[in-house]
Amino acid sequence: MALFLKKPELFSRQISEIDQEQAYQEMHAQYACSVALGLEPSHIDTHHFAATIPSIKHAFIRFLNDIGLPARRVDVMTEGMKDLTVATPDIFDMAFFDEGVSLSRLKGYLLEYQAQFTHTCVEFMCHPGLADDPLLQSLSSYSDKRFEELQILTDPQFKLWLKQHKITPTNFSAL
Questions:
Q1: Beta carbons of 127 and 143 less than 8 angstroms apart
Q2: Got the DSSP string for 2-41?
């Protein structure tokens, strides 16, 4: 069974408290359990950016290279991802989160990337969800903005705007 530490507890732990081999084995066990339940993950990332902790990062890279699934980039926060051999988006952006959640801001971010790059895959961190999900509300302090994100990302006018600007939404299966 997985134990997800709250972010302050996770990052307050001493690096020496985290056993790299145990983290690696736990990642494999959780992945095997998911597959045994019939789930087919499209990609892997870590809870609360745990892969930025050096011992977890090394276990994470090793695990990802073993299973071959695409992964979220964490090199925006930590160096040392050069040994990762699986597909990742070209860019990871955390701006569309919390106070950054707005349609106008998202359009601005997209246009900025489009002006700077061609044929680039950008992952925007987002956590869309339903507003009245009691399980989600009991597990996460970030529940109100989830519904706002969901409304923006599924708005038919936004989808039309994306098409007009030749921006293609995708998922990790396209990597």
A1: no
A2: -----HHHHHHS-GGGS-HHHHHHHHHHHHHHHHHTT---
More confident residue, 51 or 40: 40
Residue among 55, 61, 64 at smallest CA distance from 81: 61
pTM of the model: 0.78
**How far is the C-alpha of 46 from the C-alpha of 15, rounded, in Å?**
17
Between CA 3 and CA 30 the distance in angstroms is 11
Listed residue (27, 29, 91) closest to 58, CA to CA: 27
Strands (DSSP E) contained in the chain are: 91-93, 122-124
Given a contact cutoff of 8 angstroms between Cβ atoms, the answer to whether 83 and 59 are in contact is: no
